[in-house]
């Protein structure tokens, strides 16, 4: 297994340019978060609001129509798109209703709350095939890939001319994808390294700490260990937040490896800020979102460094 590079807690692994005085929404990307179902509307809302707090100019949540009003109610800045559903989750027609919207998107994040029904499967398969679209896949999107065995061959592999594809599995999801036991960190990193090299993916192996496995310039996978974050983040929805953070950074023009590393770093910083302001035991994904607002500028270069 390649050696592990451990990130300092501060400064971040990289920074994004500070905002020009004349900036407008279009400079920071339009992104789409796809997922949610009845009973799991919060997951896609957490991802979508996280993208707003990471600095995206425009964010829409594409959700089953039956939960549209619920998701729209989470945040006035969030736009929503109602897709065909079966009363619970995406129907098979949802993918056809999504395709013509994708060309306008700088990046798409898919999976939180989508469930493993056939409508979700058609959506994920369609997005995997769109190799010109920067993509984050999480949660049930990863469970669907495992169930359908879509990564057994290289059909959905991405080469260096394709857009970035970032997976964000927790150890249970990575075990389903690769067979590497969730309890064995080294084995999981080996398996993620093999998948990253074979399919040209960036893989965030979430946990305490999280690792990012990505192909560096010479085509070999590197393993980068994050040092921000804390066990207070072991609470429902924290991974959904990360999906939105990474999708936002892809939409702001970062590469897969950069969006994944900076995204994991600022996500952990938000968790640390939430733990400090509230408590580890008492914090929820909502407080991680609130804290993200407070720390987001730590990702940007100081204005004078940019002369803007
Ligand atoms: N508010 C909402 O709408 C929310 C909606 N959500 C949505 O729920 C859907 C299911 O996602 P999920 O992660 O909750 O369940 P699942 O895929 O079964 O994986 C959990 C199992 O994996 C294993 N496991 C082993 N190691 C592990 C580790 N380090 N970290 C985590 N798990 C680990 C362990 O299995 P065990 O060892 O217990 O057999 C554990 O029981 C998904 O679409 C998500 O977006 C959630 O985000 C919550 C908020
Ligand atoms: N002990 C821990 N230390 C640091 N970060 C953690 C810890 N436990 C969980 N996290 C982080 O919280 C998130 C949990 O993701 P996930 O299990 O997908 O949550 P959910 O699906 O409920 O949103 C990951 O980003 C993970 O790195
Ligand atoms: Mg998750």
From TrEMBL:
- Keywords carried by this UniProt record: ATP-binding, Lyase, NAD, NADP, Nucleotide-binding
Q: Which cofactor does it need?
A: Mg(2+)
**Which reaction does this enzyme catalyse, per its entry?**
(6S)-NADHX + ADP = AMP + phosphate + NADH + H(+); (6S)-NADPHX + ADP = AMP + phosphate + NADPH + H(+)
Its protein name is ADP-dependent (S)-NAD(P)H-hydrate dehydratase
- EC id: 4.2.1.136
Q: How does it assemble?
A: Homotetramer.
The record's annotation in Pfam families points to: Carb_kinase
Q: Which HAMAP family match?
A: NADHX_dehydratase (MF_01965)
Which family does the similarity line name? Belongs to the NnrD/CARKD family.
Lineage from the top down?
Answer: Bacteria, Pseudomonadati, Planctomycetota, Planctomycetia, Pirellulales
The record's annotation in CDD domains points to: YXKO-related
Q: Could you tell me which residues belong to the region Disordered?
A: 1-20
Mind listing the GO molecular function terms for this protein?
Answer: ADP-dependent NAD(P)H-hydrate dehydratase activity; ATP binding; NAD(P)HX epimerase activity
Q: Which GO terms describe its biological process?
A: metabolite repair; nicotinamide nucleotide metabolic process
Record InterPro entries: Carbohydrate_kinase_pred_CS, CARKD, Ribokinase-like
- Domain YjeF C-terminal, which positions? 8-299
Q: Which organism is it from?
A: Rhodopirellula bahusiensis
